[in-house]
Write a structure and sequence with these properties.
561 residues; alpha/beta; 8-stranded parallel barrel; 14% strand
Length: 561
């Protein structure tokens, strides 16, 4: 047997998977630009294009009905995108120019891909969805098998350049026991859904991933971020057994969150709507909601929803935890997530543009209406006046912004806070906490801005790693401010879902961790294995490390993992 070969990647979902490598089915070859059809076929070709799109959309919608949580949401959103009138109009126009359906679809969707890439931010993330739609429609038009997941009958390790959201959402974790992609990042759809499914996952492995041939035995370690080809059987067996022992501890863990020596750490869920909140509550692990993303009520609206309309949406979330902690994040949207009723001009760099609190300040009444709706939702859901409702503003950068927002909240009896996701907020955290009752660190954006690296870029995944010492030092600064001002500090970014990093965060002084509800048991089980003293030592080692890799490895040694 060949000597073991280890590839490094970005760790995303903890756990170990072992089995033969399988590759996703390739995407169809794109049509040549010089293909043409006779004018007599234009109407028929237009019908073929629309029928193929409808078939693909229906297939995705049917899959969404069998899925749950983020997976169901992603599949349904992709189905709707398949029927989007914008690209279909552009494709029909191209067919009228005598271009065959395959070419028309390719060119039409290609224009939108270019537009989304230029917009950056969340819009850029949708390019994978668009390219996936294109490939599925082309395959349908040609009568070919859909690109995507291979059929397997035994546990296997899935390898791909990048997985489409539709494919990731339909993974069977009993058959695909590990996942590695050449591209992707820690906050991509692939990573988020893999975390929901509990599939050990690494991303951004780079082009060397293609050196792994189908059928080779592969060991994926989602905690270390390694892909080992042809590992020794006894080594692989022990790694799998150790991961299984941890999985059993996770299954047995019931909460609440606390360290081995009894320090309480609130474990909360990130949700986007009432259904996700209900699922989190039924899991009996989350103590409440640490991040309620309210954009869902806005992004598809043609007009600003009324206070009553917003209140009905928010009340569905409140009902899931009538007495529990709920942290509502006000509208986090902007030119990269455009609102029809509050459009901004196209910006050169929307991630640094008018988004979050800034768009609310730019449109009089928007914030006030949302806060009024939160108050109304409390009453609808029956939350008593003695139950706090925590509300935080995204993209706070200055003391003036924090003071204005806090004043608006306190006028309505709401508990004011802010997201710390801009380095300026961390640097000014001591002053901000003079006017706020809590803060929550959004590690996804804080890492992006601290490292000047687009968090959706697969080429910069090594920079958008929350283990970067520079990011940890900003978190440490915020925690020190929290302790000196007696203001609680939470974390609601993807970093809170990493059991190993959670120990570091607790050691830094973080009071609550909010993540996808499916990740909370893993975090809780890990915290139960360590003392506060160990967490503080882990934090010290991570802060003094020179690289993210050294920080991660050093913490594992401190915690004997």
């Amino acid at each position: 047997m060949s000597e073991p070969e280890v590839h490094k990647a970005t760790a995303v979902v903890p756990g170990v998977g072992y089995g033969p490598a399988v590759w996703v089915h390739p995407r169809p070859e794109l049509p040549t630009a010089d293909a043409r059809i006779p004018d007599t076929d234009i109407e028929l070709e237009t019908d073929r294009m629309k029928t193929a799109a409808k078939t693909v959309a229906d297939r995705l919608a049917a899959r969404s009905e069998k899925a749950t949580g983020n997976a169901a949401e992603v599949l349904l959103a992709t189905s709707k995108l398949t029927m989007d009138r914008g690209w279909q109009r552009a494709a029909a126009k191209a067919i009228k120019q005598s271009k065959p359906a395959e070419l028309a679809v390719t060119e039409a969707i290609g224009k939108f891909v270019d537009m989304f890439k230029a917009a950056g931010g969340v819009m850029a993330e949708r390019t994978t969805d668009l390219e996936d739609i294109r490939d599925r429609i082309i395959a349908e038009l040609r009568g070919e098998d859909e690109p995507g997941l291979p059929v397997v009958t035994a546990p296997s390790i899935l390898l791909a350049d990048d997985l489409s959201p539709a494919d990731t959402a339909t993974l069977d974790p009993a058959l695909f026991v590990g996942l590695a992609t050449e591209l992707g990042g820690p906050t991509s759809h692939t990573a988020i859904i893999a975390r929901q499914l509990g599939v050990p996952c690494v991303v951004a492995a780079g082009p060397n991933l293609r050196d792994i041939a189908a059928g080779q035995q592969v060991l994926i370690d989602g905690s270390l971020g390694t892909i080992t080809v042809n590992p020794a059987k006894d080594v692989a067996a022990e790694a799998v057994a150790q991961a299984q022992r941890m999985a059993e501890k996770i299954a047995e863990w019931k909460g609440p969150g606390r360290t081995k020596d009894g320090l309480r750490v609130q474990l909360l869920a990130n949700v986007g709507d009432g259904d996700a909140a209900r699922i989190a509550a039924e899991g009996n692990v989350a103590e409440g909601i640490g991040l309620f993303r309210t954009e869902l009520a806005f992004l598809s609206a043609q007009h600003e929803p009324t206070v009553d309309e917003q209140a009905e949406v928010y009340a569905k979330v409140f009902r899931a935890f009538p007495e529990g902690k709920i942290v509502v994040r006000t509208l986090d949207a902007g030119s990269d997530k455009p609102l029809v009723f509050a459009n901004q001009e196209m910006e050169e760099n929307p991630a640094l543009g008018v988004r979050g609190l800034r768009i609310s300040q730019a449109h009089s009444g928007l914030m006030e209406h949302q806060l009024d709706a939160i108050v109304a939702a409390k009453k609808i859901a029956g939350r008593g006046d003695d139950v706090k409702t925590w509300v935080m503003a995204p993209m706070v950068a200055t003391l003036e912004e924090a003071a204005w927002f806090a004043s608006e909240c306190r006028e309505r009896g709401l508990t004011p806070g802010a997201m710390v996701e801009i380095p300026a907020a961390a640097l000014m955290s001591h002053d901000l906490m003079k006017v706020l009752d809590f803060v929550s660190i959004g590690t996804n954006d804080l890492t992006q801005y601290a490292m000047a690296a687009d968090r959706l870029s697969p080429h910069l995944a090594y920079l958008t790693d929350p283990w970067q010492p520079a990011v940890l030092r900003l978190i440490d600064m915020t925690c020190i401010s929290g302790a000196s001002n007696n203001v609680p500090v939470g974390v609601c970014g993807e970093a809170a879902a990493d059991p190993l990093l959670a120990c570091v965060l607790v050691g830094l002084g973080v009071n609550s961790l909010s993540a996808a509800s499916t990740a909370l048991a893993g975090v809780g089980a890990q915290l139960a294995e360590v003392t506060l003293a160990q967490c503080k030592e882990a934090a010290r080692v991570a802060l003094n490390s020179s690289t993210s890799e050294k920080a991660r490895d050093g913490v594992r040694r401190v915690l004997n993992l």
